[in-house]
Amino acid sequence: MKEYIIAKLIKIDQDYIYLLLNNICYKFFYSKNDIKGIKEDSEIKLYISNVWIENELKSFGFLNVENRNLFEILININTIGQKTVLKILDSYNYEELIDIFKTGNTDKILKIKGIGNYTAKLIINGMQKSLFNNQLSDKKQQVLISLEKLGYKTKDIYKVIINADDKLTIDQLTKYVLLEINLV
Known about the structure:
Layout: E1 4-12, E2 16-21, E3 24-30, E4 43-53, E5 56-62, H1 65-75, H2 82-91, H3 94-103, H4 106-110, H5 117-132, H6 138-149, H7 154-161, H8 170-183
Parallel strand pairs: 3-5
Antiparallel strand pairs: 1-2, 1-4, 2-3, 4-5
Helix pairs in contact: 1-2, 6-7, 6-8, 7-8
């Protein structure tokens, strides 16, 4: 498995970036946000991720290892496909994404075309679990859903519930979250 490639950038089109190395042309899917400012005919270092999607090996290239690592976590979240992952990476830079995932800001994920409420929650939950080892217990998930139905914003609930004591009952947890949200 290759970590990265250093080669001459010969072409960028809508979907692919093309690199030439030793008279062999390699093509990679890419994040548009990742390649801003690079020019054709320049030598670049591209971090590689190869993923099996629908019985086909697809190659993705990234200018920095952090974006590649984010991609690899996102692509492994169930029901999240390559187009959705690339849209996420196209929409925000690395630091913004880390902040979004850390704070559970589903509103920013929902701004991305084609991502609905369920998918946004799945992404936030998956990324918090992978990056910060935060996973909502069934109790916390139940309180989150209940408060969302009452009209509270997911990001506000997440900020409070993620740090709440798991030993609280559902009623105690609900009261705690409501009190903390109203203090903010």
